[in-house]
What does this fold into?
Amino acid sequence: MSRFKFSVLWLLAAVVALVAIPAQASAKTTITLSGSTSVAPLATLLAQKYVKTKQGKKVKFKILQGGSDVGISDVSRGRVTIGMSSRDPKDSDPGGITFNRIAKDAICLITNKANGIKSFDQSLVQNIFSGGIRSWGQVPGAKQQGTIDLFVRTPASGTQDAFDKIFMSPKKIFSGASQKASNGLVQQAVQRDKAGIGYVSLAFTKGTTVGNYKGVPCTLRNAKSGQYGGVRAFYFVTRGKAKGAAKKWIKWVRNNRAALRIAASEWVPFK
Amino acid sequence: MEAASLTTAPGTGSRGRDRTDRRVELWLGALASAILVLIAGMVIFVLLKGMPSFAHNGLAWFGWGGSVDEQLMAIFNSPADPDEYVYELRAWPLLYGTALITGAAVLFSTIFSVLASIFIVEFAPRRVRQVIEPVVRLLAAVPSVIYGLIGILVVVPWVARHLISESRKESVAYVIQLDGTSILVGVFILVIMICPIMIAIVVDALRSVPDKWVQGAAALGVNRWRAMRTVSLRAIRPAIVAAAVLATARALGEAIMLSMVAGSVGFAPNPLDGLTFFLEPARPLASTIVDNAEGLSVEPFGQTMYAFAAILLISSAFLSFAGWAARRSFSRYTLGDR
It folds into this structure.
């Protein structure tokens, strides 16, 4: 009986301890981030790694998502330390903020190897993904005939957001297109479906034919140099120049080898 | 009670045993009420969180109009200002998809698992039974993502290759895309997933029907099949309902597998399309939540997801209640409430 009681007490103690840990950590410097849902996954991974390093031990992170504009407006009003943005600076942005580039994201257009489309221009991409062209017979260079199978991403995904803005704007994606929850699922779908076409981050193109966009191949080098059109930069936006803990972190993100390796897992690293 | 007396050391007087009993009773009672409070708290929390989405749309939330995915996209891309949050949503395709897939799967698996259980209990040779039973129990424990993987790697390509002709694809090309991910595959794999659970419950119930009842029927000259149908099956109706409720709950909550094989498009399959209907995709509520988990911290979007969760919670509560009522009404001529 008493053993049973003790085990319950231990359980309670463990729960209390778990709840208490975050409260203890409040003595550290807190870096708050808000903004782009496309940058947030990368920022989260980087933050998780950083707090395990020697200089990162004194820092605590709080990351909120909400779109690039939310991040930029938050940081300009001083609500957060860093705003995350996946779009370039605009003239209409509030003054006094600095865009610190931390990585890039390239989006490649992929088709099945049996179809093997080598190159796309913007109007072709827009016609295919908006559902204007529904048959491969109307696409120059296609080895397949028949109806096109579109594989896109779920509304909340950063890649979807980027594709919408860079490739599609102002057209809308065909509402009957099959939505996949991850890059890997789009890749898998295009690999197996001869009539399939999709778009993925650079790291997920294996086993498919990667098409040139506006005549430029989708490669890491072209993405880094900025020649490839389907690229957007990821920024950490700060109020004025980055200072203190935020400055140290941004420097670490741009230069540390472990940080660059994290960025290279799905994105194009800074260096 | 039994468990409590087992833990008491032998030789303790009856007074000590009483006190231990009472203490265990208190502990268990506290635990049970804690769970009740937790559930009630959860329901209230989810409802409150989802409220803005319901409040903004009113009853039109449950209606149709426009593309639900475009609406979700607009909610996700809401402006930064809380006064300008977008909430506009017509969730009908998702609700319809949930009801369609769950209903069809539970219907088929009830029929199949009752027949399979009768075979296992009454007709299967001993050797066969010794193999089938453990296999069924093992299948009941397989995680759903494994079924999802098999579905997307094997079943979906097979359906795309053999069941969907080019002319069928073309006929609906400008409305929806047929690529193998479909309600057909979703229901098929869901049936495989929930059948083992139902079979396990129904087999146990069939075993507990007193032999005398069946023998009495046999003595009157009916054959085994008829005795099964008229005596045993009637007697276990509450168990069948219980199994169906459990299966429905699992089907309602199934997210990963269905998101992988049922198409993951916010589309309402149209029965007027004839056979094509079965090959059209749909996306239930649970899959919608999982697929969009990335955007939860965008406030209006998160609230919309909570609204979906609230619908799921309420329907499962309603489901348990309906199951309880059905079991009660059956229990007069049966083995009692199960």
About this structure: Chain B touches chain A through 51 residues (CB under 8 Å). DSSP finds 15 helices and no strands in chain B.
